[in-house]
C-alpha cells in the first residue's frame, strides 16, 4: 500500500539525484522519490543491466574528479539544477581482520569511495542549489560509523564516521541559507552488497548463510528485531526526510538499524 505522501505527490516539481541508484538502497530510494512525484536522476559507475530504466541515468565514477565535474555540468545543462541530492554511494571495499590487515591503499580506497566522493559531489552541485535558497541533501552513512566492528569493517567504519562529522558541519553552515542536510545510517540491510558480505563470511567460516548472518549480527551487538532491513524501509525514511513534512529537520543522523545501537 502506498503512503499518503505518495498519494499526494508531495515531491511533484522537484528534481532529485540519487548516486548509486541502480541497485540496493539507492534504487529503492530512487523509486520511492519517483512515486512521490520527483523527477529522478541516478548515477553509477557502470551502465545498469536493466534496459527499461524508470529514471534518467548518467554514468559517472564519483571517485574521479573530472567525472564529477562532467556530471554536475550535465545536470545543470539538462535539468537546470537540483532540489534534492541523495549521496548514497559507498560500501565495504577493504578486507576484514583488523588494523594489521589494512594497507595504505586499502585506507585510501575506502576514504575515496565512502567520504571524499560525497564531499566532491556536494562541492560541485551546491552552488546551483544555493542559488535557489532551498534544497535537501541526504548523506547515506552506516551504523558502522557509530558502532564499528573491527574484525569486519574497520576502514569502512572510519570513513563513515568521517562522513557523519562532515554532514553535521555542513548542516550548520547551510541551514541559514535554506539548505537542509541530514544523515541516514542504515544497519544490516538486505542488499546485494550485504548478501555478498554474508556469503563471504559463511565461506571462510564454514557456516551456512543464516548462521553467518546471525554471528555477524551478534558481533555487532545483535539486532533486537531479529532481521535485516529491506531497502524499501530505508527509502521510506529518506522520502519523509526530503518531504515538506520534515521542513524543520536538519543536522541529525537517523539510525535505521532495528535497535542495534544500544543508546537512549
UniProtKB/TrEMBL annotation:
Keywords: Oxidoreductase. Transmembrane segments: none annotated. This is Short-chain dehydrogenase. Coiled coil: none annotated. It comes from Hymenobacter crusticola. It holds the Pfam family adh_short_C2. It comes from the Bacteria. Belongs to the short-chain dehydrogenases/reductases (SDR) family. Residues 14-191 form the Ketoreductase domain. The keyword rRNA-binding does not apply. GO terms for molecular function: oxidoreductase activity, acting on the CH-OH group of donors, NAD or NADP as acceptor. InterPro entries: KR_dom, NAD(P)-bd_dom_sf, Sc_DH/Rdtase_CS, SDR_fam. The keyword Oxidoreductase applies.
Amino acid at each position: 500500500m502506498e503512503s499518503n505522501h505518495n498519494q499526494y505527490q508531495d515531491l511533484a516539481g522537484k528534481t532529485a539525484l540519487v548516486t548509486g541508484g541502480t541497485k540496493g538502497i539507492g534504487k529503492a530510494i530512487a523509486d520511492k522519490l519517483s512515486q512521490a512525484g520527483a523527477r529522478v536522476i541516478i548515477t553509477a559507475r557502470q551502465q545498469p543491466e536493466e534496459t527499461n530504466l524508470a529514471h534518467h541515468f548518467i554514468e559517472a565514477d564519483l571517485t574521479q574528479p573530472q567525472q564529477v565535474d562532467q556530471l554536475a555540468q550535465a545536470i545543470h545543462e539538462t535539468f537546470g539544477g537540483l532540489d534534492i541530492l541523495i549521496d548514497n554511494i559507498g560500501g565495504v571495499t577493504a578486507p576484514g581482520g583488523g588494523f594489521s590487515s589494512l594497507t595504505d591503499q586499502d585506507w585510501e580506497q575506502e576514504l575515496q569511495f565512502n567520504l571524499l566522493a560525497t564531499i566532491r559531489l556536494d562541492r560541485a552541485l551546491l552552488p546551483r542549489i544555493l542559488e535557489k535558497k532551498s534544497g535537501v541533501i541526504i548523506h547515506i552513512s552506516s551504523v558502522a560509523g557509530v558502532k564499528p566492528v573491527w574484525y569486519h569493517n574497520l576502514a569502512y567504519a572510519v570513513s563513515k564516521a568521517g562522513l557523519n562529522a562532515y554532514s553535521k558541519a555542513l548542516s550548520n553552515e547551510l541551514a541559514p541559507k535554506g539548505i537542509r542536510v541530514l544523515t541516514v545510517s542504515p544497519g544490516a540491510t538486505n542488499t546485494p552488497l550485504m548478501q555478498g558480505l554474508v556469503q563471504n563470511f559463511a565461506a571462510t567460516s564454514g557456516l551456512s548463510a543464516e548462521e553467518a548472518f546471525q554471528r555477524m549480527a551478534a558481533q555487532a551487538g545483535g539486532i533486537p528485531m531479529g532481521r535485516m532491513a529491506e531497502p524499501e524501509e530505508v527509502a521510506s525514511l529518506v522520502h519523509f526526510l526530503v518531504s515538506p513534512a520534515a521542513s524543520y529537520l536538519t543536522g541529525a543522523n537517523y539510525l535505521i538499524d532495528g535497535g542495534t545501537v544500544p543508546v537512549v
